[in-house]
Amino acid sequence: MTILSTILDHNDKFVGEHQYEQYETTKFPNKRIVILSCMDTRLTELLPAAMNLKNGDAKIVKSAGALVAHPFGSIMRSLLIAVYELQADEVYIIGHYDCGMSSIDTESIIDKMVDRGINRNLFNTLAYSGVDLKGWLHGFKDVTASVKQSVDAVRNHPLMDKTVPVHGLVIHPDTGKLDVIDDGYKDVKPSND
Hints:
The protein is 36% helix and 16% strand. By secondary structure, the chain is α/β, with parallel strands linked by helices.
């Protein structure tokens, strides 16, 4: 039995027994927040529990390291859509201690790609085409500095509403303890209403 078939068997039961009913909500976040967090498996249930979030309370965007790597990439687009279309009034960037992105070795990743069948010559072609693969795959040394950098990227984005607080936090992946790195309320511009 494959993982997919196991998932689909469970899904048939889940739908057939109407277990989904306990999760019904709207597309708008009840607490009017959007969160960018890491995709680390330890945070799947821990982060919402640590923040007292239930299904429907927040929009949650996940990426490796909770990084906003490009000002016009899909992460930033998701945050902007949450604010302008889905009624999120605050943004939370939440990194975590012991993040895998803090120990990324791009050479090792490239070697693993080659081991899985990617032709090593492709990396030369990408470099020749202007793709900085090592820069794109890089991680960070300090999660606190990384969270500050992502907060700064979101807060100062030319399309971000300056009245929206952008907070930076770091969660402990074992206990759920949240450390505030940047309180977004202090940098909010007054509304022009």
